[in-house]
């Protein structure tokens, strides 16, 4: 029997991944359980008889099979079923739903702050890397296509501009989340 | 010894991980169970908190990988406390004792 997968659309932003978590948990309450995660399109299995608590975890750099396996083993030991990863950095786990206080991956303020800081650091790193790439690209494009301003130069600049705004926005938003916790 | 100053005060999670490993080398699951037992069910370390804490403690040299004993079929990674780890725990216990004594003294003075 082929499992039928339901599609749902949503734009996910790393700086408020808790919103995505909430969205997935609400769908699970309605009987739609996340199977495959995407930045825009996610797939769900349909089973109204069960409900899960989903949690997202950001862990970059688990590329080596062994490290990834150790990571998953530990979460599994803590009762989390591994569902799927997105982009090799966001990992989705779930646990059968239980009434009462919902289980969390980060159980104290300090570790949650450290987690937000990690996300923020990566955003900052990508931002700086892109400024370097952008400068290199621009120097190159300007020398070769200086006559095609609207055809090439402006569109490329616009794409980078959107990227910078998103990264900058995410960096500030994550910073606000950290400030809230530190207080 | 700046290593002590840098880590103190320990979070509850760090403290319980270190004293769980002080007893004997263990794996993640064992540490979670020990923490719950030692704190009479009050402190439950979440998987994300534990995973990050173990990596931090490894990086700071307070714990180390412990070779999986021969004959066990488990592939679970095991950890042991290092000498530096023991020094940090001892310093933290000393700090906590001071806090406790100061607090108790204030209450005794109040009653008199």
Describe this structure in words.
- The complex is a heterodimer of chains A (183) and B (112).
- Chain A has 183 residues and is of the alpha+beta class.
- Chain A folds into 2 domains: 5-96, no CATH class; 109-182.
- Chain A has helices spanning 17-29, 65-77, 109-144, 149-182; strands spanning 5-9, 32-36, 41-46, 52-58, 81-86, 90-96.
- In chain A, a hairpin with a 4-residue loop joins β2 and β3.
- In chain A, α3 packs antiparallel against α4 (149-182).
- Chain B is mostly helical and 112 residues long.
- Chain B has 5 helices and 3 strands, in the order ααβααββα.
- Chain B has helices at 2-7, 12-23, 28-38, 47-59, 83-111, and strands at residues 26-27, 63-66, 78-81.
- A 3-stranded antiparallel β-sheet of chain B has the order 1-3-2.
- The longest helix of chain B is centred in the C-terminal third of the chain and has 29 residues, at 83-111.
- Chain B starts with a helix and ends with a helix.
- The mean pLDDT of chain B is 92.
- Classes of the chains: A alpha+beta (183), B mainly alpha (112).
- At the A-B interface, α2 and α3 of A face α3 and α4 of B.
The number of domains of chain B = 1
Q: Which class best fits the helix and strand makeup of chain A?
A: alpha+beta
Beta strands of chain B, count: 3
Largest interface: A-B, 23 and 21 residues
List keywords for this structure.
heterodimer; A: about 180 residues; alpha+beta; three-stranded antiparallel sheet; 4 helices; B: about 110 residues; mainly alpha; Arc Repressor Mutant, subunit A; 3 strands
SSE arrangement:
The complex is a heterodimer of chains A (183) and B (112).
Chain A: E1 5-9, H1 17-29, E2 32-36, E3 41-46, E4 52-58, H2 65-77, E5 81-86, E6 90-96, H3 109-144, H4 149-182
Antiparallel strand pairs in A: 1-3, 2-3, 4-6, 5-6
Chain B: H1 2-7, H2 12-23, E1 26-27, H3 28-38, H4 47-59, E2 63-66, E3 78-81, H5 83-111
Antiparallel strand pairs in B: 1-3, 2-3
Helix pairs in contact in B: 2-3, 2-5
